[in-house]
Write a structure and sequence with these properties.
Elements (H helix, E strand, L loop, with lengths): L2 E5 L2 E4 L4 E8 L6 E8 L6 E6 L6 E3 L7 E6 L4 E6 L8 E11 L11 E4 L3 E6 L1
Parallel strand pairs: 2-11
Antiparallel strand pairs: 1-3, 3-8, 4-5, 4-9, 5-6, 7-8, 9-10, 9-11
């Protein structure tokens, strides 16, 4: 099992930027793909972005493509989500997640693909 701790959430005006970070511990980080999900009040959790264990491939939800960038630093056991041009509809609790399996060939994007989750960090975008 891996422990994940998110940071970097907060309140920002529409059009602004935030950078979320996720620190991982407990297993070999570089073997596992990582993802970000979010859940707004009254809505189901949704996929935001994911990055392959090697860092060579990424995948984004259409709603954030071109605005958000996921990255990872395997030397520091961290994954980040740079969020630009934020919109009020981006308001949600954001969760970092680690792949259930190591060295997965494809970039995971379903909640069931991930076996470890962080506690979440609140992102609020005001108009």
């Amino acid at each position: 099992q891996v422990q994940l701790v998110e940071s970097g959430g907060g309140l920002v005006q529409a059009g602004g930027s935030l950078r979320l970070s996720c620190a991982a511990s407990g297993r070999t980080f570089s073997r596992y793909s990582m993802g970000w999900f979010r859940q707004a009040p009254g809505k189901e959790r949704e996929f935001v972005a994911a990055i392959k264990w090697s860092g060579g491939s990424t995948y984004y939800a259409d709603s954030v493509k071109g605005r958000f960038t996921i990255s990872r630093d395997n030397a520091k056991n961290t994954t980040n989500l740079q969020m630009n041009s934020l919109k009020p509809e981006d308001t949600a609790v954001y969760y970092c997640a680690a792949d259930r399996w190591q060295y997965r060939t494809a970039v995971p994007s379903k909640g069931a693909d991930f076996g470890s989750w962080g506690q979440g960090t609140q992102v609020t975008v005001s108009t």
